[in-house]
Design a protein that fits this description.
Number of helices: 7
Largest sheet: 4 strands, antiparallel
Distance between the termini: 28 Å
Low-confidence stretches: 218-223
Strand order of the largest sheet: 1-6-7-5
Structural class: alpha+beta
Radius of gyration: 20 Å
Oligomer: single chain
């Protein structure tokens, strides 16, 4: 599933095409993805000018001058295509601008979603209201982490995947951050010391920043809107590298399965 860096990369790619432009055509080519398209999507977006784009957790945001925001989630296989040569079976939403540019939301598995919200109501929208702080913001810090993890015996990896604790982190980047911070994924979350929490916050920011700079990770279907692949997967320290040497130089990357998800870590340096 596309994680925070992939969504951030997508939003930045769309910004160069959509920011300041008027949407002259909006076509939902089927009734639904994971859930139904808003019934008034075409009416409210056609003729609207895009005033800006943004991201919250793993959601992309397209703001308009009508006080509406289109919120999209890429699900498992979704991605935006810019100026596609042809519109195919899996292109489920098509936008055209006054500049003659065309974008299509392609989602073969249809686990993504598109919602249309009043911009001012976004903070109170149920999926957003429950979210924790953004990991690249100052609100995510060692003190905040200590407070929300106090007394928790659940593994730290599971806690970091909980979007109520921190918004936007997913399996790939949690594995990478825990390796950088040298914290075992099975460590009881409430047992982390303040110095370890500081290392973890710094590691999460480091891996996310590097992943965004590399255009994300191209796993399965993900690619940037311009069709280019993200290259951060070539920099993975542990993810998908079971049996290979850990960058610490002391151990070999191991793999375990927790709740159906693969966890990659180094038993030698992650304690």
């Amino acid at each position: 599933m596309p994680e925070l860096p992939e969504v951030e990369t997508t939003v930045r790619g769309l910004e160069s095409v959509l920011a300041g432009r008027v949407l002259t055509r909006v076509e939902a080519r089927r009734a639904d993805l994971r859930r139904a398209f808003p019934p008034d999507l075409r009416q409210r977006l056609t003729g609207a000018r895009v005033t800006g784009l943004g991201r919250r957790a793993k959601y992309g945001l397209v703001h308009t001058d009508r006080g509406d925001t289109m919120v999209f989630h890429l699900g498992m296989s979704g991605r935006w295509r810019v100026d596609p040569g042809e519109i195919g079976t899996h292109d489920h939403l098509v936008l055209e601008t006054d500049e003659g540019r065309r974008l299509s939301l392609m989602d073969p598995r249809r686990f993504g979603s598109v919602d249309l919200m009043a911009t001012e109501a976004l903070p109170e929208w149920a999926p957003f209201k429950a979210l924790g702080p953004e990991p690249l913001s100052a609100d995510f810090n060692a003190a905040q982490l200590g407070e929300v993890l106090k007394g928790r015996i659940a593994p730290i990896k599971a806690m970091l995947l909980d979007q109520r604790i921190v918004a936007g982190l997913g399996n790939i980047y949690v594995c990478e951050a825990l390796n950088i911070a040298r914290i075992a994924p099975t460590r009881a979350a409430g047992k982390l010391t303040a110095p370890k929490r500081t290392l973890l916050v710094e590691a999460a920011r480091q891996v996310l920043t590097e992943a965004i700079a590399a255009g994300g990770s191209s796993l399965r279907d993900y690619a940037r809107p311009d069709g280019e692949l993200g290259y951060f997967s070539k920099q993975f320290r542990v993810y998908g590298r079971a049996g290979e040497p850990c960058p610490c130089g002391k151990g070999v990357v191991a793999r375990r399965v927790d709740s159906g998800r693969s966890t990659f870590y180094c038993p030698a340096c992650q304690r």
